[in-house]
Amino acid sequence: NAGVTQTPKFRVLKTGQSMTLLCAQDMNHEYMYWYRQDPGMGLRLIHYSVGEGTTAKGEVPDGYNVSRLKKQNFLLGLESAAPSQTSVYFCASSFSGNTEAFFGQGTRLTVV
Amino acid sequence: GESVGLHLPTLSVQEGDNSIINCAYSNSASDYFIWYKQESGKGPQFIIDIRSNMDKRQGQRVTVLLNKTVKHLSLQIAATQPGDSAVYFCAENLIQGAQKLVFGQGTRLTINP
To answer: What is the spatial distance between Cα A24 and Cα A27, in angstroms, rounded to a whole number?
Structure first.
């Protein structure tokens, strides 16, 4: 049972480049989330999804887009990367909004 | 040892002592709270949760206390071990029946041998 898997684990982008982060979960969870974590800070919610085909904005959605075409996958896109998006990105999933969220191992993204 | 949540991000305790990590949450309507542990280079790991209709919940060596009157959450770790060294985050579900889990800043717990 893999849980929540994020790819890639590391990435370096140049300013203006685009990329997609993939999150996959095998627990049949309805809810999925993307967070970013900056040094010495807690996690901030970027976008989330309450089911296949749905997405919603979190605390810091600007500069990111998401898609949930399949229940098990939640994609986070950066259309034009900026240095301010250098961060560690975590994906999570949960059975419902009021249950434990399981986290992936993170993607360390550096924008130069 | 005891922390004051967001205003004291580090806490050091001796191995074997008990530790208390505090968290002030923001929304009086929040109905669900979780404590997570994050080790260096890893994702957050669930420790224990509590719902707003409870004021105390116990797990293995951990206890969470919820005081809704002052919007305060604490995590007690008994008989700390070196493996307890990590950053601990509290998280609250902002809206009843919704899905917005918001994290606090975190407290770094260091266990001294």
So the answer is: 10
Strand-pair category, B62-67 with A19-25: unpaired
Residues B44, A103: C-beta atoms closer than 8 Å:
yes
Q: In the prediction, which pLDDT does B95 show?
A: 62
Place of tokens 């399981």: A102
Q: Which residues in chain A are contacts of B98 at CB distance < 8 A?
A: 97
Strand partners, A17: none
Residue type, B17: D
pLDDT (tens digit, 9 = 90+) per residue, A38-68? Answer: 887 789 999 999 999 999 998 899 999 999 9
Q: Is the pLDDT of residue B59 over 80?
A: yes
pLDDT at B27 over 50: yes
**Contact between chains at B43 and A50 (C-beta distance less than 8 A):** no
Token readout for A93 is: 């999933």
- Is the CB of residue A44 less than 8 Å away from at least one CB of chain B? yes
